Amino acid sequence: MLRAGFFAALAALASGLAGAATADDLAFEVREGLNLNRFLQDGDIAAHLVLRSGPRPRILVAFPAGNSGVGLWFEPLPVPAHWTLVGDPQPIRVDDARGRVLRGMSFVVAIDAPSLVIRQAVLSSVRVLRDFELLGKAPALVAAQATVRGDTLRWARDRLDDAPGYQLDVRVAKGDLSGDAQQPARIHATEGRRIELEIRAVSGETPLTPFPVAQLLTSAAAPDPKTRHVLEFLSYREKFLAGSWRFLTYFGRDTLMSVRLLMPALAPEAVEAGLASVIMRLSPTGQVAHEEDIGEFAILDHLRAQQTRSAAPVYDYRMIDGDFLLAPVAAAWMLDDARGRTRAVTFLAARPEAGEPNGTRLARNLRLVLARAAPFADGPTRANLVELLPGYPVGEWRDSNDGLGGGRYPFDVNAALVPAALEAAARFFASGLLDPYLAPEDAALIADAARMAGVWRAQAARLFEVRVPQARARMAIETYAAQLGVRSPPARGDTLFHAVALDAAGVPVPIMNSDEGFVLLFGEPAPEALDHAVAALMQPFPAGLMTGAGMLVANPVFAPPALQRKFTRDAYHGTVVWSWQQLLFAAGLERQLGRCDLPLAVRAHLAAAQAALWKVIQATRPLANSELWSWQWDGRQFEVAPFGAHRAHADESNAAQLWSTAALSVRPPSARPHEHSCTNATN
Question: What residues contact residue 36 under an 8 Å CB cut-off, 6+ apart?
């Protein structure tokens, strides 16, 4: 029988382990909406505890190892209740029933509820836990039954391939435990309507290798302890993790954008680890893997497809934006950064996992870029733009089903990423760095890369233009503002912006959007076009994207009502704020202000936009490391509302998001006016 003495001994062991921690070990907290998050990293142990309060309480622990986790869901409560932590979580290493090491954390929690009824425990991949949170069901193959011994519940199971699995122990330290095989377990409060639980949660998945801080960040990184902690928790030599708790594994797009935005603050070893993780996962045709299924989720994939219990990773190549991100990010490191230039030859010659050299794989991606860009370069029409893959409604960062409003040709990919990839390809070919990895038949493509880039730069963005005359704009803004119950700003002349996408017929989907940030970071639009684009988006919402709660990623003010209903403040890619998109736009503005061909009036407009954007970025710092947030209107102004705290919200925001840590590198401008930074500005 498991008794209190066992957990006391466990706590003592954990305390001893914590005392031996090195300076690079992590322990920090993030409170966001209904969730209390505690992060812990100690050598080969890394775990993220999520305590969800409210009417539907939950306890969840996610592990970077194998993207695995354990979760405990309770039946809804008549009155919302709140979790508190009693002391600090501690790292633990325990043996399973077969003597194999499991790693995780122990902790003590209390909740102010008269009783709790256990709905279900799920022990598996984070992907399985994520699906259970959204859909309320999990594969029968991963079901775990509780065993009850006195005051303790235990759920334990091996991985589906018989490898070390997962274990969750819950001891009722304060309260009474009842229930049997026919009745769900129920915990009753006995002391002042308070239940206290001692918990240990562990996983047998293979741990990742954390970066020592000195090999992760340089002295250029902002002195922001919380953001540094988030980046450290998500950074490993094998790969960077997209976010926790819901995306605790490799994502190609997220890795590339994070490396690009963080590059000045990242140590060379970290930059190259990120690039190598993407390059080694390229498909045989050069596609960038969007996401990987690993651990038990990979086994479930193989069981469905081949009836085998293989744990070999399964890669998702459905996204198209990553294919065109790799080249410009690699060029930013190996061609533009002095540190990267000195290491480029060695990096390209390296062979991840004793396979092909990085240079061979990168060359394969460049061939893909050139081949997919060729039709439009030879005939710049809507039909020849880069389209989402057949059968998929998503393909870039707005990857919820309604994120592009039904569009098939995304603006960010076609107007920014394809031309940036072509330019990077031309520069790589000219540098000679890839000569050892090219074939004779590549000569024609190499010679054509710069021409193709020019066509895409000149022709693609214009196909996405939407112009709304002033009178119609004023009416649309007033009507939409009244529907939302917010103040209506004036319409200042005609509104000109780029649609978020084109539909299958090539018609612009009229959603104002923040993806202009990609153009700002990766392109050099004509001064007049740059001025118009930024001016439209910087207008107060719902005329533009700016609110006191941040810069929104979408605004459907000029869309038909049916489309407006898909872009609400409850939608994942609706009228909400994504931290990294604000930083992307800020980095893009900084880059454009470094140009010497801008008229003084345009430069002044961009500087004003930069100041306004940084004002809201700094005002929303408490949520800066999270994935996204929403807003509410108090009758006078917009206020931040954590995403996932309301039942109408489409999903739950990650408290730690990789690309949101770009704030360590993307920082407010210096006090020196930009007007004096370039002497060649024109009148």
Answer: 29, 50, 51, 53, 83, 84, 85
The pLDDT of residue 292: 97
Q: How many other C-beta atoms can be found within 10 angstroms of the C-beta atom of residue 132?
A: 18
Percent of the chain with pLDDT over 90: 87
Radius of gyration of the chain (CA): 26
Task: Please answer whether residues 499 and 411 qualify as being in contact, where contact means their C-beta atoms are separated by less than 8 angstroms.
Answer: yes
How far apart CA 26 and CA 93 sit, in angstroms, is 17
- Report DSSP state, residue 287: P
Q: DSSP string spanning 61-111? A: EEETGGGEEEEEEEPPPSS-B-EEESS--EEEEEE-TTS-EEEEEEEEEEE
DSSP, collapsed to helix, strand or coil, labels residue 512 as strand
Q: Please give the single-letter amino acid code of residue 483.
A: Q
Q: Could you give the C-alpha distances from 384 to 206, 381, 445, 506, 510, in angstroms and in order?
A: 45, 6, 18, 10, 20
The full set of domain ranges for the chain reads 4-203, 468-683
- Give strand pairing partners of 192: none
Whether residue 666 has pLDDT greater than 70: yes
Per-position DSSP letters for 123-173, written without gaps between them = EEEHHHHHHHHHHS---GGG----EEETTEEEEEE--TTSS--EEEEEEEE
**Element spanning 474, H or E:** helix 470-484
Q: With 90 as the cut, is the pLDDT of residue 5 above it? A: no
Beta strands in 339-494 (DSSP E): 409-410, 465-468
* More reliable by pLDDT, 193 or 102: 102
pLDDT digits (tens, 9 = 90+) for 108-166: 999 999 999 999 999 999 999 999 999 999 999 999 999 999 999 999 999 999 999 99
State the DSSP code for 532.
Answer: H
d(CA 100, CA 428): 48
Residue 202's H or E segment, with its range, is strand 195-203
Q: How far is CA 626 from CA 327, 394, 552, in A?
A: 28, 23, 15
Q: How far apart are the first and last CA of the chain?
A: 83
Contact 295, 327 (CB under 8 A): no
Task: State residue 245 phi and psi, 5-degree precision.
Answer: -105, -10
Q: How much is the average pLDDT of 433-453?
A: 91
Which residues 6+ apart lie within 8 Å of 625 measured at CB? 30, 226, 227, 230, 579, 655, 656, 657, 660, 661, 663
- Report residue 24's pLDDT band, with 50, 70 and 90 as the boundaries: low
The predicted-structure confidence for 334-386, as pLDDT tens digits, reads as follows 999 999 999 999 999 999 888 999 999 999 999 999 999 999 999 999 999 99
Report the C-alpha gap between 80 and 93 in whole angstroms: 34
User: Mean pLDDT throughout 663-676?
Assistant: 70
Mean pLDDT value across residues 204-208: 98
**How many angstroms separate the CA atoms of 476 and 471, rounded?**
9
